[in-house]
Design a protein that fits this description.
The complex is a heterodimer.
Chain A lengths: L23 E2 L3 E5 L3 E7 L3 E11 L2 E8 L8 E5 L5 E7 L10 E5 L2 E7 L15
Parallel strand pairs in A: 1-7
Antiparallel strand pairs in A: 2-3, 3-9, 4-5, 5-7, 8-9
Chain B lengths: L6 H7 L5 H19 L19 E5 L3 E7 L8 E6 L2 E8 L9 E5 L4 E8 L4 E11 L2 E8 L14
Antiparallel strand pairs in B: 1-2, 2-8, 3-4, 4-6, 7-8
Classes of the chains: A mainly beta, B alpha+beta.
Chain lengths: 131, 160
């Protein structure tokens, strides 16, 4: 795995079938790399912690955060700059990530996923033995 | 999106669609998504510095109250400054760059951070004593009660 800044890959996974009702948005995501893990930070404002599903199946990591509607219909909107709906996004996770140890935490509308690197790709200091 | 670039593999798994075309299609999808979600945030106005953060807000009015909601994920509520002067509402704050807190390598970034300041003219007749502000799950909600209008009194005109 490269640590260069140019590793951003614009190719998304093919769109997942849209059978869900209502609006569905792609959350904004930051991905940061630490020595031991990749850190995925997804903005899912308005989602309660118990309404977030994180699934890993067949190498695909899926985030689905259900957001309860909060824009009242009987109100008159003077300013309306955003839509309210679920957040949904999938990622393809390579073998370089230890999928069994993926963990997630949530605070203040930000979902944080920890993707520990597989042993093989962790930085390792190799001792040079003198003979 | 892929967490780890793996070009040759993607091409075969995407049914032979050329990578650049697929990337373009997904970029269009992403832009469309961003536009539907935050049309205002897409504005490229000269006085608004590129990359600056401008949280999306909605302002709603009902018979008895005015509700303002802003999406502010990842903020420390202590860094929020909400002021109501008459019917002028000012929302200001600072979202700290999360990467600075750890010293990690940048990999991919879509979220924005920094200072913001937005002001709104709210409908007349808000009772500034009855304002409730909550921050939960990254959403700031302000509920402001309207001053109850004094009931109209009909005055009979006496004919002399």
């Amino acid at each position: 795995m490269s640590t260069e800044n140019t590793t951003k890959n614009p190719t998304e996974t093919p769109a997942i079938e849209h059978t869900r009702n209502g609006l569905c948005f792609r959350p904004n995501v930051d991905i940061r790399e630490r020595d031991e893990e990749l850190l995925v930070l997804a903005d899912v404002p308005g989602a309660a912690s118990d309404s977030i599903d994180v699934n890993f199946e067949d190498g695909m990591l899926t985030i689905h955060a259900k957001v309860a509607p909060r824009q009242e219909h009987d109100h008159r909107y003077l300013v309306r700059e955003y839509g309210v709906g679920d957040f949904y996004r999938t990622f393809r996770v390579s073998e370089a990530v230890d999928a069994g140890k993926i963990s997630a935490e949530y605070a203040d509308g930000v979902l944080m996923l920890h993707l520990p690197k597989a042993e093989a790709v962790k930085p390792r200091k190799i001792e040079v033995s003198a003979k | 999106m892929n967490l780890i670039p793996w070009k040759s593999k993607q091409r075969s798994e995407n049914g032979g669609e050329p990578g650049s075309l697929l990337a373009l299609r997904h970029e269009m999808d992403r832009l469309f998504d961003a536009f539907v979600r935050e049309p205002f945030g897409m504005l490229d106005v000269p006085w608004w510095p590129q990359g600056k953060w401008m949280p999306a807000v909605d302002v709603a009015e009902s018979e008895n109250e005015v509700t303002v909601r802003a999406e502010l994920p990842g903020m420390d509520p202590k860094d929020l400054d909400v002021q109501l002067v008459g019917n002028q509402l000012v929302l200001a704050g600072e979202k700290k760059d999360r990467s600075e807190q750890h010293g990690e390598n940048f990999f991919h970034s879509e979220t924005r951070f920094g200072c913001f300041r937005r002001s709104f003219t709210l409908p007349e007749g808000i009772d500034s004593e009855q304002v409730q502000a909550d921050y939960a799950n990254g959403v700031l909600t302000l509920r402001m009660k309207k001053i109850k209008p004094t009931p109209t009194k009909k005055i009979e005109v006496q004919v002399k």
